[in-house]
TrEMBL record:
Homodimer. It catalyses: acetate + ATP = acetyl phosphate + ADP. Its EC number is 2.7.2.1. The record marks H180, R241 as: Transition state stabilizer. The gene is ackA. GO terms for biological process: acetate metabolic process; acetyl-CoA biosynthetic process. This is Acetate kinase. Mg(2+) binds at N7, E385.
Amino acid sequence: MKILVLNCGSSSVKYKLIDMPQGSVLAEGGVEKLGLPDSFLKLKLPNGEKVVLEKNMPEHTVAVGFILETLRSEKYGCIKDYNEIEAVGHRLVHGGSKYANSVEIDVNVITTLQECTDLAPAHNPANIKGIEAIKAILPNIRQVGVFDTAFHQTMPDYAYMSTLPYEMYEKHGVRRYGFHGTSHRYVSQRACEILNLDINKVNIITAHIGNGASIAAIKQGKVIDVSLGMSTVSGLMMGTRCGDVDPGALTFVMEKENMTLAQLSEMINKKSGVLGVSGVSSDMRDIEGAIKAGNPRAILAMKMYDYRIKKYIGSYAAALGGVDVIVFTGGVGENQWTTREIACEGLEFMGVKIDKSVNTNMRGEEKVISSSDSRVKVIVVPTDEEFLIAKDTMEILG
């Protein structure tokens, strides 16, 4: 069953064509700079070579159409007819509290996405455009939505409720929703497969660490807490996002700097975090270079970044009543051994011991990095959200 997986952003469309159930990736790539005159499609060939195809793509329907044309093209294609694509699975960001599972897309799903636009203004409108683009080009194909927020809907009310006046929840839905749910679900399940554990009998902490980052506490297969809240700004320090910060500091800075709400939003979303503290970059490769050169602010940013990961792991171990498995994933979690090591240092009291020789020689692969005598298993699992979206799509459509 060939399933096209789409991840539609405001200025990008990522895709993978996956042959299920074996999970073979037949094609992958993405449109970048969507809506700009210099937009292009970058695709990865089976031999690993990357190809860039330039085309003016003013909106999502043109972009999706060009992706489909490329999939069927003589030079870069892997299908002869669109009918070979049996379904489309979409990464959908925000389903509010309505969806706890993936669903076949119908008018009710579209309505929910529209209702949740205020909660994800940069993502939900783009998700809707992706669905509509497929509908316009392939009107008879079935589509499935996999929500980033769905996996976190098992949180108890005392974990997801805000401490603001209760009417803010009743009126505006202010609460903790959490994101990266598809990634947390995939890596927790995959870690248990590798370790031969029953996910319904163990406590897991999953750390999705990248430019955007979140940590989830999973008790016997169900999320009980997650670091991201109503928005994608809270929790861990991120590439450009501030993470947890004193709200009083925000009103103080607004007043001192005569900021508008839009300027404040710009600061906490795009000018803070690793970039804001270091003054160098939001890219960890640049930060590592600056650290080697002795840049004190880059050193400080890295210490803050790693410390907050450790702090969340410790607090979630307490919330879970003990932890059996810690999983690292995401661009940093999979590739930066120093962050994994520092985040686990000092956690020996709760049974965490890293095998440094294994950890330092490992990048981007499935690997147990805890020592043989560690009570808590620590493992790196590269995330594969697209595979899980394809799997959900296949199962829902039978």
